[in-house]
């Protein structure tokens, strides 16, 4: 049973907690990297928790998976080679597979246990692994990117957990530099970039690093995910210098996506207006983030 005191001590959102009623524990385990918990909630379907942090729920995972994927992929004309860092639940893979221009997808996930339990408990997400274009690499992303030839990818999506624990190195400058090197000119990066309500300093640090590393353009976007503390989570969209990228208006014909049935599931959250709206910031966030 989680004690209330320990419950309120997560350094990512000290003093606050979003709680879900547990109907039934479905899985509890521990990998070399983190504790893994899956439970059936009363109102959000199944829930995946890593080290006490909600990663996704059946009900609202579509918001995060669709936005982190289609914001970058709909911003370039014809993405062919895509890399996913993290994303072991398979949800981002499921969304990438909607893009018929994509020819190959590399995914580098450090924790095999996350992949295994999501195949058992989240078939709607792990369906992404079944696509023949997907090549799985289990290991450390820094290592993987060091060995990636320069200019390999049209898009890189960093679906990381938070920078406490295995994902700490994924917000540091050297990592962003290896990403820039692995992107082709005009290639794009989209990574999980915390909440504008809770993590302004962390976002400012990431924005500074990205403005130094990506001479193309850098934009912060956000969306609503009710089961993430603060109810909002952000994304950092970066373009490597080269053919210009306009993140603010989707270029890739999203219409053919909206109807796209992939793996038996239609799109539930993303559309062209939500794409444009994601880059519109409330005044406090403009003040705190647009200067960086
Ligand atoms: N696939 C990982 C998604 C992120 C899950 C953990 C998490 N939940 C958050 C809530 C608010 C801000 C940042 C957050 N990061």
Protein model, in words:
The protein has eleven helices and eleven strands. With 292 residues, the protein is of the alpha/beta class. Helix 7 packs across helix 8. The longest helix is centred in the last third of the chain and has 14 residues. The structure holds 5-(1H-benzimidazol-2-yl)pentan-1-amine (JA2). The site of 5-(1H-benzimidazol-2-yl)pentan-1-amine (JA2) has 13 residues, from strand 4.
In short:
By secondary structure, the protein is of the alpha/beta class.
Share in β-strands = 25-35%
Average of per-residue pLDDT values = 92
- Write out the distinct hetero groups bound to the structure: 5-(1H-benzimidazol-2-yl)pentan-1-amine
Rg result: 18 Å
Give the helix proportion (percent range).
25-40%
**What is the CA-CA span between the terminal residues?**
42 Å
Strand order of the largest sheet: 7-6-5-8-9-11-10
Unreliable spans are: none
- Using the alpha-carbon principal axes, give the shape: globular
| Order of helix and strand elements from N to C terminus | HEEEEHEHEHHEHEHEHEEHHH
Number of strands: 11
* Main sheet record: 7 strands, mixed
Structural class: alpha/beta
Number of helices: 11
Give me some keywords for this one.
292 residues, alpha/beta, seven-stranded mixed β-sheet, four-stranded antiparallel β-sheet, binds 5-(1H-benzimidazol-2-yl)pentan-1-amine
Detail the topology: elements first, then pairings.
Layout: H1 4-7, E1 22-30, E2 35-41, E3 46-50, E4 53-57, H2 61-73, E5 81-86, H3 91-96, E6 104-109, H4 112-121, H5 123-126, E7 134-138, H6 141-146, E8 153-159, H7 173-182, E9 183-192, H8 200-213, E10 217-224, E11 232-239, H9 255-258, H10 272-278, H11 283-289
The structure holds 5-(1H-benzimidazol-2-yl)pentan-1-amine.
